[in-house]
UniProtKB/TrEMBL annotation:
One of its GO terms (molecular function) is transcription cis-regulatory region binding. It comes from the Bacteria. InterPro entries: LysR_HTH_N (IPR000847), LysR_subst-bd (IPR005119), WH-like_DNA-bd_sf (IPR036388), WH_DNA-bd_sf (IPR036390). The keyword Transmembrane helix does not apply. This is LysR family transcriptional regulator. Keywords: DNA-binding, Transcription, Transcription regulation. Pfam families: HTH_1, LysR_substrate. Belongs to the LysR transcriptional regulatory family. Residues 1-58 form the HTH lysR-type domain.
Length: 305
């Protein structure tokens, strides 16, 4: 059994709706259903009554949630205790950041920040947004740094977690150039000759943002989905090799654009903006983290004035 299956069941218990629970768990509804089936197979009993609306847990499901919640809390507390010895020495914070941001944004941001403040040690873990949110919620990181888009919000409890803007990025389509330097492929494509599309997997945050761009476009796009990956850098490399068009954060694509390996594959109607945001638990007791957050908050207020 996987711990995330229990979290899935607890989400269904709370929201009494597979669709809403899937949103909270940052997975597709079909993926959530498969995981609940896997949990039921492991338990050997039906846990969810799918014939009721709103969705209800069976008696076995209620008992499993009750006992499982206590067991999960005990396991997480034990893990937290054991991890105390693994923390970095001295003034330190642990950051969980999106895969591309951990490469394109975090090193420069940390270097700039530490120029003007007392130094501290940092441990960085790169993760997708789903795993990053879990790490923050379970207290396994002090700071989460991820992308934000108003039409694809991260479902996180504002009563327990605070957030601040750190910067901005752009999200736009790129492809390899032809010999004359023009795009090898160009949006929106043509009927009968669709543009090969290098797509993010369905459960990724940037995949949701790319879907929003395509959904909101005034002109329908002729695309054929030929490759999927959950990481920006994989899609970027495929685009560089000439396999198709990929939507990429501008910060990630910039070196390849500067070297002539990538060019824009469409006009501004295919672009959108991304905000880079930091998240912190309001219950965080790490003094170094609290100092950092206070400084970030002050800087954010000064920018807003």
């Amino acid at each position: 059994m996987q711990i995330k299956w229990l979290d899935d069941l607890l989400a269904i218990e709370q929201h009494k709706n597979f669709s809403r629970a899937a949103e909270v768990r940052c997975v597709t509804q079909s993926a959530l259903s498969r995981r609940i089936r896997s949990l039921e197979d492991w338990v050997g009993a039906q846990l969810v009554d799918r014939g009721t609306y709103p969705v209800q847990l069976t008696q076995a499901g209620q008992l499993f949630c009750e006992q499982g919640r206590e067991a999960l809390a005990a396991l997480l507390e034990l893990r937290s205790t054991l991890r105390q010895d693994e923390k970095m020495p001295g003034r330190s914070i642990q950051i969980t950041a999106g895969h591309s941001l951990s490469i394109t944004f975090l090193p420069k941001w940390l270097a700039q920040f530490q120029k003007h403040h007392e130094p501290f040690n940092v441990r960085v873990v790169a993760a997708n947004i789903h795993d990053a949110v879990i790490a923050l919620a379970e207290g396994n990181c002090d700071l989460m740094i991820v992308y934000h888009h108003p039409q694809a919000p991260i479902l996180i409890d504002a009563d327990k977690f605070a957030s601040l803007p750190l910067g901005r990025d752009a999200f736009l389509p790129f492809c390899a150039p032809d010999r004359s330097g023009k795009p090898l492929y160009r949006l929106p494509g043509k009927a009968g000759k669709p543009v090969p599309y290098l797509a993010y997997t369905a459960t990724t945050f940037l995949g949701r943002v790319a879907d929003l761009i395509l959904k909101n476009a005034a002109t329908p796009c002729e695309l054929t989905r030929c490759y999927e990956a959950d990481m920006t850098m994989l899609l970027m490399q495929m685009a560089i090799e000439g396999y198709g068009v990929a939507w990429l954060p501008q910060s990630a694509a910039a070196p390849a654009v500067d070297s002539g390996q990538l060019v824009k594959a469409g006009g501004n109607e295919w672009n959108t903006g991304l905000e880079i945001r930091a998240y912190c638990s309001l219950a965080n007791q790490n003094p170094t983290m609290r100092e950092l957050w206070e400084t970030l908050g002050k800087a954010s207020r000064e920018v807003g004035e």
